[in-house]
């Protein structure tokens, strides 16, 4: 981890998760810092596993982070990581399915991470993305980061989200999207 808890390691669930590699995590956060979306951000980490991405965001200046994972063991590990890093006030853990949570996510969020199991269907991922694109879930200027297998197709971006970058790191592909401009809106408006 970097930021205020730099050099600390976190626990990972014994099975059922695929932690983001240090190399990929560092590349993601380098881009996010360049985009200036971390400081004071409200962050949603869906399919959180150990919470590594959300915890890194909190460590680098996010004001509020919500970690969501349906697996009880993963949510318990994430809670222990939050406590061990002393981030209890700014980070909460929700034991719920990402698909269900996204339908009623209490936005607006400035940054959303989705690191689902690689075997999650494209349709299921598309449904979660569509829920995130609903009015009020994402703040203006928000960034959505999706981590998938490099062999998976491009996510099916719903109306309301526009992809702006993809970067591959071996077996891992990281996709970035932002809220799409309203039809008829002036660019940059």
TrEMBL record:
InterPro entries: DNA_methylase_N6_adenine_CS, RNA_MeTrfase_RsmD, SAM-dependent_MTases_sf
Keyword Cell membrane: no
Residue intervals passing through the bilayer: none
Keywords, comma-separated and alphabetical: Methyltransferase, Transferase
CDD domains: AdoMet_MTases (cd02440)
Short name of any one Pfam family annotated for the protein: Cons_hypoth95
Protein name as catalogued: 16S rRNA (Guanine(966)-N(2))-methyltransferase RsmD
Species this chain originates from: Isoptericola hypogeus
Source species taxonomy: Bacteria, Bacillati, Actinomycetota, Actinomycetes, Micrococcales
């Amino acid at each position: 981890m970097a930021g205020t808890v730099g050099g600390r390691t976190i626990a990972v669930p014994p099975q059922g998760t695929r932690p983001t590699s240090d190399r990929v995590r560092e590349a993601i956060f380098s881009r996010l810092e360049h985009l200036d979306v971390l400081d004071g951000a409200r962050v949603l980490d869906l399919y959180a596993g150990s919470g590594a991405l959300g915890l890194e965001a909190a460590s680098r200046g996010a004001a509020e982070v919500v970690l969501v994972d349906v697996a009880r063991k993963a949510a318990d590990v994430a809670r222990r990581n939050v406590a061990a890093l002393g981030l209890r006030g700014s980070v909460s853990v929700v034991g719920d399915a990402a698909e269900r949570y996204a339908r009623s996510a209490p936005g607006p969020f400035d940054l959303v991470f989705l690191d689902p199991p690689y075997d999650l269907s494209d349709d299921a991922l598309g449904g979660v993305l569509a829920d995130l694109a609903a009015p009020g879930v994402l703040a203006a200027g928000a960034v959505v980061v999706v981590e998938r297998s490099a062999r998976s197709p491009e996510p099916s971006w719903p109306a309301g989200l526009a992809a702006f970058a993809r970067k591959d790191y071996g077996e891992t592909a990281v996709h970035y999207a932002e809220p799409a401009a309203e039809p008829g809106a002036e660019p940059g408006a």
